[in-house]
Amino acid sequence: ESYGPSDFVWGQQALLEALTPEEIQFLTSLRLSFSVGRYFICHAGVRPGVPLERQREQDLLWIREEFLDSEMDFGKIVVHGHTPVREPEVKANRINVDTGAIVYGRLTCVVLENGGACLLPAPFLRPPCRARCGRGPPGGRAGGLLSPAVASARRARAPWVGCAQPTTPTDSPR
């Protein structure tokens, strides 16, 4: 199912209505990226070939294929989301922790240490808007949110926990 601009406008409006002014101020004060140890944390990823300190906002928030297909050494392991996957992806040069809280009802936490990364699942989630206000987006579509029945069925599966030691990134792009 595809989503258009009206779905994003509806989602933005619903989020703004749900947040307090203090929460909005907090979110707008956050940095787009930061580095800690051997990790670089951002929303979507980075543009291959551009130093981490010179990445553009557009790429940090929206890049996909060029970043996801790259095996280039970025100088640090990039921890990102933006592209939902059923299980976290641990590659030599990046870790994708977007396990689709909106799409699949699964939220993943990553614990970063110099020796590696441990991935911890949170319990399955219920759709935020349907659970709180009982309505979905315009047109009656679920907007990618899980129904409570689907979330309950998925909750029955055994959760996974994994720890990974990323290998050394390669210098050559794919």
Find the count of extended strands (DSSP E, 2+ residues).
Answer: 8
Major beta sheet summary: 5 strands, mixed
End-to-end distance: 30 Å
Number of helices: 6
Low-confidence stretches: 127-174
Structural class: alpha/beta
From the alpha carbons, calculate the radius of gyration and give it in angstroms: 18 Å
Strand content: 15-25%
Order of helices and strands: HHEEHHEEEEEHHE
Tell the overall outline.
globular
Mean pLDDT: 74
Summarize the amount of helix as a percent range: 25-40%
Order of strands in the sheet with the most strands? Answer: 1-2-3-5-4
Structure, described:
The structure is a single chain. By secondary structure, the protein is an alpha/beta fold. It is built from 6 helices and 8 strands. The protein has helices at 5-18, 21-29, 57-62, 65-68, 128-133, 148-155, and strands at residues 33-36, 39-42, 77-80, 89-90, 94-96, 108-113, 116-121, 162-164. Strands 1-2-3-5-4 form a 5-stranded mixed β-sheet, with no helix packed on it. Strands 6-7-8 form a 3-stranded antiparallel β-sheet, with no helix packed on it. A hairpin with a 2-residue loop joins strand 1 (33-36) and strand 2. The two termini are 30 Å apart.
Strand and helix layout:
Blueprint: H1 5-18, H2 21-29, E1 33-36, E2 39-42, H3 57-62, H4 65-68, E3 77-80, E4 89-90, E5 94-96, E6 108-113, E7 116-121, H5 128-133, H6 148-155, E8 162-164
Parallel strand pairs: 2-3, 3-5
Antiparallel strand pairs: 1-2, 4-5, 6-7, 7-8
